[in-house]
Each structure stands twice: as C-alpha cells, then as structure tokens.
Structures
1.
Amino acid sequence: MAQDSGIKRFENFFEGFMFWSRWVQAPLYTGLTIGAFLYLVKFFQELYHTFQQTTSLHETEMMLRILGLVDISMVMNLVVMVTIGGYSIFTSRIDVDSHEDKPLWLEDLDAGQLKIKLATSLASISGVQLLKTFIDYREAEQKAGAEGIIIEIVIHMVFIISALLLAQTEKITHSYKHGHAAAVKFGDEDH
C-alpha cells in the first residue's frame, strides 16, 4: 500500500511537472513580441523613405512601396496571431473576455482554428508578394526570369490549397466531434 502511494505521489509530481512545462514556450512569445517591435521600426523606416521620395517616385514604384507597407502590416498581424493565440491556447488562458477591445478572432479560438487563420494569413501575404511581382512584371522577369515568376505562383497556390485543406479537415473534425457528442448524448437518453 505504501508503495502504491509513493508511485501515486511520483505520478502526481511528474504530471504537474509536465503541465508546468508549457511555460517553456513563454520566452518564445516574448521574443516574437520583441521581433514585432523591431518590425515596427522597419515599417516606419520604409514609410519615412517613401515619404522622402514621394515626388520623385513613379506611380508604379509608389504602389509597390505602399504594397510593401501592407505586406509588413500583414506579417505583423501574423505575429500577433501566433503570439496571442499560441500563448492563450498552449501556455495560459488570457483573461480578456470582458475587455471591450477583445479581438473577434479570439472568440472560441482553438488550435485548429489558429492553424487555419495562420494558413490564410500566409496565403494573403503570398498574394501581396505575387501582386507586387505582377505590377512590375518586366523587372521581376529580368531578376528572376519567367521560371521564378511561375515558382511564385506555384508557392502561392500551395498556400491557398493548404489553407483550404486545413479548413476542410477542421470542418470534418469539428462535425465529427459534435456528431459523436450528440450520438453519445442521444444514447444516454435511451438508457
């Protein structure tokens, strides 16, 4: 009997340690937050250079610069989703339910939904890059050649297909969970 209680204490300690280990990720999210501030500096640096050269930039070049700023903001959104979403799903729940500024995407967020949001964000970022290539097609063709542009298109399509497959997988998994739960509940009512 004493041996059983010793094993149980060890098991409780080990499980507590394993549960605590989720905090190992916290420094990663802190690092991503610091990276976001560094990227913010890059955004304002690009904005400043664009502002300085506004009168000398051709319309196409101006459009490309603005798309570059959009690209930076989309990457920043991705970092925020990974940081807040990852932390709240895998490390510790963030108690912002009653906060008036709680982002809508945090509602009922789980790991599957976070993956879909990340995949669609990557597809959007890739789409902006592809748009930049199409806007200045001649220069892109000189730099990367037609093959390089085709590779960009293929990469973008891979991101889109991946996002669609993740969404479909999540839909199937989600409907299975709810269907299974309903079947169990319905079965319980019969007994």
Note: The CA atoms of residues 134 and 140 lie 8 Å apart.
2.
Amino acid sequence: MSKSASRARLADIIRNRSFGRGEITLASGRKSDFYFNLKPTMLDPEGAALLAELTYEALRDEQVDFIGGLEMGAVPLAGAIAQLSWLKNHPIAAFFVRKKPKEHGAKLAIEGLAKGESLAGKRCVIVEDVTTTGGSAIKAVEAVRESGAEIVLVLTMVDREEGATEAFAEAGLPFRSLYKASEFLNR
C-alpha cells in the first residue's frame, strides 16, 4: 500500500474507532465537544500496523535510538514501532515513562531498559497518541532529559491543535503530527 493509501486507511480507522462528538473533559482539564481515544485504533491489528508503519516512515531519517513516552498512550505505539523497526533492519528500542515511579521493586520512572542500560547520550523520540497542550509529552521529555538523553522530536498521532505546537516551540522541541484534529472535524 502506498503511503497516501496507508494514511487514508488509517484516517478511516481513527474516524470509526477513535473519534467522537460529545462533551468531554480532556487530560489538560479543558472541556471539548469532540474527542479522540486512540486506544481502540492502537490496539486494533490493522490500526496498530498502520500507526507503526507511518510513524516509522516519519522517523526514517532521524537516526533514532529509542522511542517512548508517557504511559499509557505511548506504550502500544512504542512497542509496535520497536517491532516494525526490527523487521525493517533498523532497530529503534522502546521505553515508557511512568506517570509516577513505582513505590516497590526497582522504583523506576523509565521502564523498558535492561539492567545497566541507560538513555544517557541516546537520541530519543517522545511519542504520544493525542496531544492537546503538550503537557503530558513535556513530562516525558523532562524525565528522559534527566536520564541524559537528547530529545530529537516529539511526535503525536493526532494534534488537537490547541496549543501544543506553541508550547513545544517555546520549549525548543521539534514537534510533528501524523494528523491534525481539523482533518477529522472538517469532514
């Protein structure tokens, strides 16, 4: 399937499985009359494959070592992308950032790294399912930067177009999205 056909098919899947109308309170605390819940798309076999494919293609020239982000939205994405990158002979390892470090066991804030492995000096992409103001991704950026990694990009599947672009620009972070909310609202 061509990139444009993959993108169109994935938009259909998102529209049918993950987009809705109706009043909702977002993670940012804002109220909205539409929502994206990308979990049904990320956990659908075809949706997961297309998200991984399009994300992998978007990162192809970035020389990325790791991909991850804040739980829960980043977990299925990072895992699917890691698997596809291995199959494409260009491995990108995955991790995720806990919203709150575990209070037992290793008490880690960043999960997915082997014992003795570190993000220090690694080129990382922060990935997110849906971005409104960018607050969740910024939390992940802060944790990953604290570990010594370089953030090369913040990539979201759907940008709600409600301030994230400006917030990331202000923070000096490159930001891209696969889709914009207006692509779903204007149809």
Note: Residues 47-186 form a domain with the Rossmann fold fold (CATH 3.40.50.2020).
3.
Amino acid sequence: MDTSEPTTPQASTGRVNQKLRTRRAIVQAAVELMRSGREVAMPEVAKAALVSEATAYRHFPDLVSLLQEAMAGQMPSPAEALASVADSRDPVERVAVATEHLLRTVLTYQGATRAMIAGTITRPESAGARPAMRFGLIDLALAPLDDTLAATDPAALRQLKNDLAVVVSAEALFALTDLAHLDPEQAVASVVRTASTLTRAALDAAASR
C-alpha cells in the first residue's frame, strides 16, 4: 500500500514558485555580473545566486541561454541610442553616434559579450541567441537614405549595411584592443572613424553615379 501523502495543490504551487524564484535569482546574478564588466561564467553566476552550479544548469542548459535571458531588456533601443541625433539627416553623423554607442555598450558588458561570442562562435546554430544590436542601429542610422539611396540604388545601400556590420561590432573592437594593443578609447575612435569613412565613401560614390 502506498502510504505517501498525496501532493496538495498548495505544495505543487509552492514548488513552482520556488523554481521561479531560483530562476530569477540566477538571472539577476548574471545581470549583476554583466554590469560589472567582469568575466561571466556559470560557476560565478551560481555562487552569486547562492545556488549550486548543478542547479543553475538545471534552469539553463548552457551559459549562452542564460546570457540571452539576462541581456533581454538591458540594452537601450536603437531609437534611445540615437536620441542625440534624432533630428539629424546626416547619415555619417548618425553612423558615428551608432558606432560609438555600440562599442561603449560592449565595453560596459565586456565580460558577457566575450562569453556570448565564445559560446556561439563554435556553435553557429546558436548564433541567433546573440543580441545583434548592430543591425538595428545601422538600419536606424541610415534611415535618412530610405527616400534617396534606397530608391535609386538599393543594392548599394544593402552593401553599405553589410560593410558596416563588419565594422560596427564587438569583434572589430576586440581585434584592436586584444591584437593591436590599443587602449579602449583609441580602439573606439578607430572603429568610429572607419565606419564614418565607409559611409561617406558610399554616399560620394552614389552622388557621382
């Protein structure tokens, strides 16, 4: 005969609520580590959340999935990022602001950014977990071209966006800081200059055609 006590609705609800609290604690710990700029790894997250590493992995199968949830809602929208140039119709100026915003965000969340890149670069199928902020920023920065270059030479506009996607990136920033040994300010200035030059060159080429 089974003498175990039946599970009550209250007990079941209590377990669900506890799981939700634990999950929120893990995510919040990841957010705090992200904001610190330090390296983000599952053992450090679990320690900060006061849970075991095994518990953290029960809620999130890998660091990428945890970072994806932790990053959600932490970054300003493209419109918020470009608020200072909202009235500008100059794509070069707008691209410069978008580029600097992205790079400074990367520096602020450097540990999480590196962990996300490391976790997805060898697993292309998980690349969709990356925020891909650059594309929204580039699209909005080039919005003044929707009535001009987009109408006269949409292929040229697509190419410019692809070119900028290579430059307006954490990868470009890390190449300059890690490999070229520039300090962060020098690296940001270099990438902003490159993005601005690309944009200006595309506009000049379009004007000459």
Note: The domain at 9-71 is CATH 1.10.10 (Arc Repressor Mutant, subunit A).
